[in-house]
Design goal:
Ubiquitin-like (UB roll); binds FE2/S2 (inorganic) cluster; Enolase-like, domain 1; 3 domains; Uridine Diphospho-n-acetylenolpyruvylglucosamine Reductase, domain 3; binds flavin-adenine dinucleotide; five-stranded mixed beta sheet; alpha+beta; single chain; five-stranded antiparallel beta sheet; globular
């Protein structure tokens, strides 16, 4: 049984392990306002809002794609759908009123999803009113996961900008607490008969993992649930990692090598990770803006991206460039391994059958150490990489040190370009040295051709990214030299 709130009312429903929130809404509860467009998280027609208590006990709403969210993950949450927004079924919510006022809808198929994305944006501004007008970046981030075929985005953007100054009602139940459906109630009180397990402690997760080798682990479900909706797989048993407290933590600490940094719990979402990355590695944080949509980032996790081991996953190359470590936990305890030893072959990792990925170590940024991340994809918003390059290095007396050149999309696994790294290591960043590195790159990888890019495109792109890196290093050393000359001139 799942206990949750739906549009202000407590609900308790039975659901199969593989049922999505969208199926629950449309087929069991007959709430058909939430639409199915793609069933793969791409179009946003199924967008709903999920309310959960934050670390301060405040109820916060975020957007999610109902088509790829397991219904069981509603346990203890507040689900808000488009049917709930009009107060007393009479007074439009400001997001709805603004869409009417600005003519933001034509056929209306995408409209419920767009209204729900605007709703979460409105809630965010309600919780922390903006001092300045909504920035174009924030607006793009809020609406980047919603496609509209007929209206065009101008009136929708106008609605988002007008929303706060348009008369409308915000239902009072949005501020209600979640007392009736606490998330610490298990959905699998009867563990033997349940097929969806929601442990709250790491040792329970590990025990379930070992007891049910056929089960699939699920975190944000933004990869896994596509196996249900696209490949029509029947998942016989599912173990949810998202309520495990240890997997939700971001802790300052050290890795096995004594380096300071952060242990990121495997079930930490991109949305929660972003503030830390903004501070430590802005270029990594910037990559997150290009990873999926707001709906995907609100639910997708760093652990899911790593464990999925896709050769075109966005974060693994960055973790390789940062010499990140992974903590794998099984019945006999935890072990820590370098991220570079985790990916073995296409979708094959070092994770044993009875282990889970519990945390990812990201070292603290160091003065002088640089990181650049460049993602090439066909679309800027909500698209998977064709090639991604993540590069880390520092200069010591003008020589490149500890060079890491990691790529996605160039091999069956995310991988470092060892030959190209060796060509740069210990050299000054001259055009000749980079020419040698680009040449070595052709032996490092033999990429494949697919819908995202031909082998030739990938090889040329990777080479071009190295040239871009050279230019960045050249311009930064030039800027540094100019600064030094000027400081010298001022000093004398
Ligand atoms: C519309 C859309 C756009 C996307 N865009 C991008 C993109 O731009 N870049 C990108 O890299 N990805 C993208 N993705 C893929 C996906 O969002 C990411 O890979 C995400 O990080 C997966 O995390 P998750 O928590 O949703 O994983 P899930 O789907 O829950 O799990 C993924 C896999 O990891 C396993 N797993 C999860 N947690 C653990 C654990 N703790 N231990 C062991 N195994 C575990 C699961 O069993 C499953 O096999 C996109 C997906 C969608 C739907
Ligand atoms: S139906 Fe397209 S994102 Fe869910
Ligand atoms: S109004 Fe028709 S798809 Fe957006």
């Amino acid at each position: 049984m799942i206990t949750f709130h739906l549009n202000g009312q407590p609900h308790r429903v039975a659901a199969d392990a593989h049922l999505s929130v969208l199926e629950l809404l449309r087929e069991q509860l007959h709430l058909t306002g939430t639409k199915e467009g793609c069933a793969s998280g791409d179009c946003g027609a199924c967008t709903v809002a999920i309310g959960a208590l934050d670390a301060n006990g405040e109820l916060r709403y975020h957007s999610a794609n109902a088509c790829i969210m397991p219904a069981h993950q509603l346990q203890g949450r507040h689900l808000v759908t488009v049917e709930g927004l009009a107060d007393n079924q009479q007074y439009l919510h400001p997001a709805q009123a603004a869409m009417v006022e600005c003519h933001g809808s034509q056929c209306g198929f995408c409209t419920p999803g767009i209204v729900m994305s605007l709703f979460t944006l409105h809630e965010e501004q309600h919780a922390a009113p903006l001092a300045a007008p909504l920035s174009p970046e924030r607006l793009e981030a809020a609406l980047g996961g919603n496609l509209c075929r007929c209206t065009g985005y101008r009136p929708i953007r106008d609605a988002a900008l007008a929303m706060n100054s348009i008369d409308g009602h915000r239902p009072l139940w949005l501020d209600a607490t979640l007392d009736d459906a606490q998330d610490n109630q298990h959905t699998d009180l009867d563990e033997a008969s349940s097929r969806f397990h929601q442990p709250h402690q790491l040792n329970d997760l590990v025990r379930l993992r070992a007891a049910h080798p056929e089960a699939r682990l699920v975190a944000g479900a933004t990869d896994l649930w596509l196996e249900v909706t696209q490949q029509l797989k029947d998942l016989p048993r599912v173990i949810d990692t998202t309520r495990v407290s240890e997997l939700q933590q971001i802790e300052q600490g050290r890795d096995v090598n004594g380096r300071p940094g952060w242990w990121i719990g495997a079930a930490v979402t991109y949305a929660r990770l972003e503030p830390l990355l903004n501070k430590e590695y802005p270029t990594f944080a910037h990559l997150l803006h290009r990873l999926g949509s707001a709906q995907v980032r609100n639910r997708g996790t760093l652990g899911g991206n790593v464990a999925n081991a896709s050769p075109i996953g966005d974060t693994p190359p960055v973790l390789l460039a940062l010499d990140a470590q992974l903590r794998l936990t099984g019945p006999k305890g935890s072990r820590e391994i370098a991220a570079s030893n985790f990916f073995i072959d296409y979708k094959k990792t070092d994770l044993a059958e009875n282990e889970v990925l519990s945390a990812i170590f990201i070292p603290a940024s160091q003065t002088g150490r640089q990181l650049k991340v460049w993602k090439l994809s066909k679309r800027r918003e909500d698209d998977i990489s064709a090639v991604l390059g993540a590069f880390a290095w520092h200069l010591e007396d003008g020589y490149l040190r500890d060079v890491r050149l990691a790529f996605g999309g160039m091999a069956g696994i995310p991988a470092r370009a060892r030959g190209a790294e060796a060509a740069l290591e210990g050299h000054s960043p001259s055009p000749t040295v980079f020419e040698a590195a680009r040449k070595a790159l052709t032996s490092d990888f033999s990429p494949m051709s697919d819908v995202r890019g031909s082998a030739d495109y990938r090889q040329r792109s990777a080479s071009a990214l190295l040239e871009r890196l050279r230019l960045v290093i050249e311009s930064s050393t030039h800027a540094q030299t100019t600064q030094e000359v000027m400081l010298h001139a001022y000093a004398h």
